[in-house]
Amino acid sequence: MIFDKDIAKKTAEVLLQINAIKLNPKAPFTWASGWKSPIYCDNRIILSFPLIRNYVRETMAKYIEQHYGKPDAIAGVATGAIGIGMLVADYLNLPFIYVRPNAKGHGRQNQIEGFIEKGQNVVVVEDLISTGKSSLNAVNALRDAGVLVKGMVAIFTYGFEISKENFEKEGITLHTLGNYESLLDQALQTNYIKEEELGLLAQWNSNPSEWNAI
Length: 214
Fold this sequence. Notes:
The protein is of the alpha/beta class and 214 residues long. The protein has 7 helices and 10 strands.
């Protein structure tokens, strides 16, 4: 996973500013997986703030051009990355497609929505990386359709070891605007969290499935 320290700091700042990310180690959230978590991330909130939305759109677009050149299309992962993926594609003046978790059970039964041809290349846009499984599911759907996946760019990653292993296994390079380590640094600097809370937050990240705040 690759990131720029200055961009990661700025991304942490804006995500905390609009409450797209909430940190609460003393009253943890419960994820759909059942994991207890001191952090909750909802990057879709970004779409409601034009200045921050534009920052994410332009930074992602520049990442893509710098590291991958100009692909034939941008692919968003449904549903969280459809909005930001469309904005990035528009900024780059590229076609946009998105990938569902599974093929529809009716109509044309598409898993990939939009027009893309075999042999064309895409960069995948994602909003959030946890284990990476849903993101890589989209990558594999594109590959099965004969599309060449150049890499992925995401807004934020928790930086779990399992996600790093999953991306390496699939041979996919991941660039992220923000990450957990930079988030904690920014939260501490701005007094969003206290020094004594930092240990709990770091413990969760190293073993999220077993973590308990109590």
